[in-house]
Amino acid sequence: MIPEGKTFDRKSARYDIGRLADILIAFANADGGTVALGIKNREYEGISLLSEQKKNDIEQIGTQRIIPSIDVAIDKKKIVNQKGKNDEIWLLSVNPADGKIYTNSRDEVYLRIGDETHKVTFEERKNLEYDKGIRVFESQAVSDAFLEDLDSDTLNQYKELYGFTGDNIWDLLFPKGLAKRVRDSNGSFSYQLSVAGVLLLAKTPTAFIPGARIRFIRYEGREAKLGTDMNVVKQVLIEGPLPKVIDRASKEVESQLRTFSSLDLKTGKFTNVPEYPKGAWLEGIVNAVTHRSYNYTGDDIRIVMFDDRLEIHSPGSLPAVVTTANIRHTHYSRNPYIARALTDFGWVREFGEGVDRIYKDMSEFFLDEPVYDVDANSVNLTLKNNIVMRSFRKNNDLESRIGSDWDSLNFIEQAAIGMAYEQGNIKTKDVLKQVENYSATSVRKALKHLTEMGILERIASAPTSPNQYYKLIK
User: Fold this and answer.
1) For the segment 296-337, what is each residue's pLDDT rounded down to a tens digit?
2) Of 86, 313, 330, 368, which has the fewest Cβ atoms less than 10 A away?
3) Among the CATH numbers 3.40.630.30, 3.30.950.30, 3.40.50.300, 3.40.50.2000, which is that of 8-120?
4) Domains of the chain: which residue ranges?
5) How is 433-474 classified by DSSP, letter by letter?
6) What is the value of pTM for the model shown?
C-alpha cells in the first residue's frame, strides 16, 4: 500500500467532508495530490456504507467546499472490502494551483508539508501569495517553441517512464503540465509547450528562457582573484534539457573532486575518502535546478568550487513557507511540474527528504553543517570540507618534503606531521588529544624523533618551557 506523504493521503469513507476538503486544498496549494477514500487502518473499508447524499456531497466537494472552485478528479476503483464484498474506493485528485490560493468557506488556507496538512499562518499566507505569482511562470505557454525543438533522447526517455506509445505526444505532455491548451476565437484549440516542458525537454531551453543553465567555476585557492592574479582553473557553461544539465553538472563537479587519504585515528591507517559526500553536493545541485526562480532570466545557477568549500548559487529566494530555520523538514515546490518530472527521472528524492539528507551526509563525513545564505534574490548553499582532512589531501606535497621516510613513520609521527602541516605549529597536548590510547611519553618521543630527523623544528625559550611548540621545517 502506498505510504502517506507529500502527494498522497488515505482516509476512511466516514471522514469529515470539511476536513477532507482541507486536505485537497492543501494539495492544490502545494504540489497537487490524491486522497484515497475508503481505506481505514490500512484495510479496504469501501464506499458502499455511505448514503447517496454523502456520496453526492463528495462528488461536489470541489465546487461546494473549496474557494475558488477546483476540478477534483474522482477515479472509482473496484475492490473487495474487508467484509469480502464487492465495493469501491475513490481516488480524489487535484492538480497544483497556478497563481491561485485555495481556501475553505472560513477563508482558511492549508498547505501540504510532508505527510501533514498544515494550516497556514497570516505571515505564511502573505509569502504564499507572493510565491504563487512566481509559480505561474512554470505553466506559461511558450508560443515560439515547437515539438521540433525538443531533444529526442530526453523525450524518448520521458515516454518510456510512463510507458507512452501513442501517436499524439500532447496526450502525454498536457496532463503532466508540460503543455498548455490554447483555444482560439472559433472555439477550436491547439497545444503549446509550457515553460516547464521547454526546460525539461527542449534541446536548448536558453533560446526561450535566458539564464536556464548552470555555470561551473573552479578556483585554485580559497578566494577568487582578478586581473593578473586570476585563479580560475576551469569554467564551463552547461545548457540543455534539465535532466541532461544535472547529469553534466554532476560529472563536472566529480571530475574536479579528488579522492584523498585520511588518517583514521582509531586504526592508525590511511583510508580513501571523497572530498565531500556525493549525496550532499548532488542534492544541492538538484535542489537548485528544481526550485530556482526561472522568471529571474538575468541570472543562472552557479556552482563555484574553492579549495576549502563548494558553493551553489540559485536565483530566487526560498519559496513560500520555507525558511532557513525549517528548511530541513519543510517543502514547497515553486515548480511542481518540474519537481514531479525530475522525481520520475530519478533525480529528485522523495519530497521533503533532500535537504535533510544533505545535513545527514555532511554529519556522517564529520564535516561542518551546510550553510544557507538567503536574501531576496538568491539562495546560496555552502559545503565546507574538513580542514584537518585536507592536510592529508596534499600527499604529493608531504611526500616531496618527507620523501620515502613517510612510510617508516609510526602513527603518532604521521598524525603530528599532518597537524603541523595544516595548523602551522603544534604542542604536545595538541597531538595527545588527537591520538587516543597513546601516552604523553609516546607523543613526546615521537616529536623528538621528528625533530632529530629534521622534519620538525622545536621552538622554545628554555629547555623546559611550558610554551614550547613544533613546526615543519621549510
Assistant:
1) 888 999 999 998 899 999 999 887 778 888 888 777 788 889
2) 86
3) 3.30.950.30
4) 8-120, 214-388, 394-472
5) HHSTT--HHHHHHHHHHHHHTTSEEEE-SSTT-TT-EEEE--
6) 0.67
